[in-house]
Amino acid sequence: MSRKKIKYIHLFVWLFAIFANLPYSNIGQKIPVQQAVTYLFAFLYLMVVFYIFYLFIVPEFLEKKKMTMFFAVSFGVVLVMPFFGYTILFFIKAVFEHSFSHFYKGYSPAMHMSGFYPVLTAAVFGSFFRVIINWFSTMNQKAELDRQKIAMELELLKSRMNPHFLFNTLNNIDALIRTDPEKASSEIIRLSDIMRYLTYEIASERVELSREIDNLRNLVGLYRIRIKDPESIEFEATGDMSVLIAPALFVPLTENAFKFARFRSNKPAISFRFDSSGGIVTAEIWNYYQKGSGKNGEYSGHGISGLRRRLELIYPTRYQLVTGEEESIYRVKLTIDTNEDKMHRDR
Q: What is the distance between the alpha carbons of residues 125 and 133, in angstroms, rounded to a whole number?
């Protein structure tokens, strides 16, 4: 649910609350100004209680599953808030009566408890409203993620059915059959592994990082046979490969690197470095490109925007994607925190 829609819902709820309480406020029936001001500040005070729970207590405790702390803090806040509410009302009374003597005259435990129920009502509604908004946001996010997943699977299906990549690869393998049959056989197995991965693994929400890295190695391997000098490509993967990650996240970055790389002089022309430590997965990919050709601008808009949308849906607030260029080198660094996935898996 978008922030704009949430703001409209808040506005509607408060306007409804104001008009629903007007018949009981006596406003418009020649009441003193003091009564109108008292009503206004009492209403604003309950709004404060509502947003204390909506913005702070529920996100800090309830959403983080700290149930004991949530109930303890909620009880404490609801218990003391009537005192501050009555303090505001006594202040308004003192201002209108021009006397601050005996400021808390008439304040008693019974009066305090009479303010307990409005405060409790505002607290419950603030908590309930936050939970409902989060639920709708989660459902919308899940629906959007499902749509993105279907779209991604369709795109991958198109790429599998697109003969361009297969023709180039098969032509390269055909040339190898005459010169190096053993290597040609291994490349056919590599191509088969890629197709198997894209057919079966891509349907999973998460795969082991080792499987993703193996698929990238195979993909890079097929690109290698097009290039005369294998030293032009550098590939390194270190750390814990057992962490789970969304499949095919690095494929667009790999394809872009090869599409726009310059292999003429610099070695390596492309570098792939992957690392996993403490649940943090880092991918650093850079390649030389022809400066001034305009390809670097193409690169930044090719596949990156779609990848960002996937990351926003799958890893909101848990990823960082940084792109940049310097001295004919285009760099991409993607960092993903997979620890939350691990916690869900352990439960």
A: 12
DSSP 8-state secondary structure symbol assigned to residue 51: H
The residues with which 26 forms a beta bridge, in sequence order, are none
Residue type, 170: L
Going by their DSSP bridges, the two strands 270-277 and 233-239 should be labelled as: parallel
Q: Give dist(CA 40, CA 153) in Å, integer.
A: 55
Q: Tell the residue number behind the tokens 């795109």, with chain if given.
A: 155
The helix/strand/coil state of 323 is strand
Q: Is pTM, for the whole model, over 0.70?
A: no
Letter for the amino acid at 193? D
Residue closest to 286 by CA, chosen among 312, 258, 309: 258
Residues 205-238: pLDDT tens digits? 889 999 999 999 998 888 888 777 767 889 999 9
Question: Are the C-beta atoms of residues 239 and 275 closer than 8 Å to each other?
Answer: yes
Closest CA to 119 of 68, 93, 63, 80: 80
Q: What is the pLDDT of residues 136-157, one digit of tens each?
A: 877 877 777 777 766 666 555 4
